[in-house]
Amino acid sequence: MSIEHFLNEAVSSWMNNDGPDSDIVLTSRIRLARNLKNYLFPTVFDLNEAREIVNHVKAAIEDKDIAAIKGFEFLKMDELTSLEKRVLVEKHLISPLLANNSPEAAVILSGDEDISIMINEEDHIRIQCLSPGLQLRETLKNAWEIDDLLEQHVDYAFDEKLGYLTSCPTNVGTGIRASAMVHLPGLVLTRQMNRLIPAIHQLGLVVRGIYGEGSEAIGNIFQISNQMTLGKSEEEIVTDLTSVIKQIIAQERSAREALIQSSNIQLEDRVYRSLGVLKYSRVMETKEAAQCLSDVRLGIDLGYIQNVSKHILNELMIITQPGFLQQYAGRTLRPYERDIRRATLIRERLKLEEIQ
């Protein structure tokens, strides 16, 4: 396995599987923040300490008990090009912060890309596990398994009263960040999101864009996650978030039904217009592509469109990002060139789907 394995395939293999409520919940993610005992945090450590931490974690992953779980690949950030790092960010395999933390930063990825262990991001270790649909509890168990195996080889910074010690105070305690990526076109079209977001914040949760903190919600896709990690167990955090996500799912389905009842022909027209734009456009910006893909996915979920797989839309949502477009082109593209190539890729991929 090599970096090309992670760059050439737009969709991770686990993303081709349907999970519970996958018409609305695209992915479930669990991230555990951990630091090694007797080392300074990444915000203040020096390169020698950073290098030691990378070597410690790499050696732990190479242990036969951990290596037997998945086919892991070790990638150092300073050995990747800026474009390669951008593609990994677009696939949600690394964070933008890790991509910028060269030289002594790294990631360890499983072959099917459902496990990502980031080294020297904001903390020494960030264990990330991903699953399709609403599977937060199952994903937490996967993260625990990796966490327990790592802890057999490294000493974590842990306080009996505070829990796991982290660079950011909001992660102290369990160190867990649980999140679900959700597609909410019904709530957006019925203008309920502006009311819903403050209500979610009052529950101690946070709503972010498609790439997490500081990113924009495009294509009606949002990340909803816990905000605090201290004072509750991992199970309680995941249970509370799951409960809220289920309520949001119910509200989204209710909003979709209301649209069908009140504006069925207008909704169907919107869906097919967006499909037409995707099939025939010659120039397309990122936001327009994301919005059209969102409309078409809604049309598939509602049964308007029968001959397009929603898995193809998952693929298109990723390969139309700037990094992937340039990776396929093999060179840096100007914005207008990216818009032309984006439209071309979408047309060709949808045409291939029709042939099959």
Short description:
This protein has 13 helices and 10 strands.
Description of the molecule:
One of its GO terms (biological process) is phosphocreatine biosynthetic process. The chain is α+β, with helices and mostly antiparallel strands. Among the domains are: 1-17 and 32-155, Creatine Kinase, Chain A, domain 2 (2-Layer Sandwich); 264-354, no CATH class. It has 13 helices and 10 strands. The protein has helices spanning 3-8, 47-61, 64-67, 82-90, 96-99, 136-151, 185-189, 193-202, 234-280, 286-301, 310-319, 322-329, 335-355; strands at 25-34, 72-76, 106-110, 115-119, 125-132, 158-159, 163-164, 176-183, 205-208, 221-226. The chain has an 8-stranded antiparallel beta sheet, with helices on one face. Strands 6-7 form a two-stranded antiparallel ribbon. Helix 4 (82-90) packs across helix 12 and helix 9 (234-280) crosses helix 10. The longest helix is centred in the last third of the chain and has 47 residues, at 234-280. The protein starts with a helix and ends with a helix.
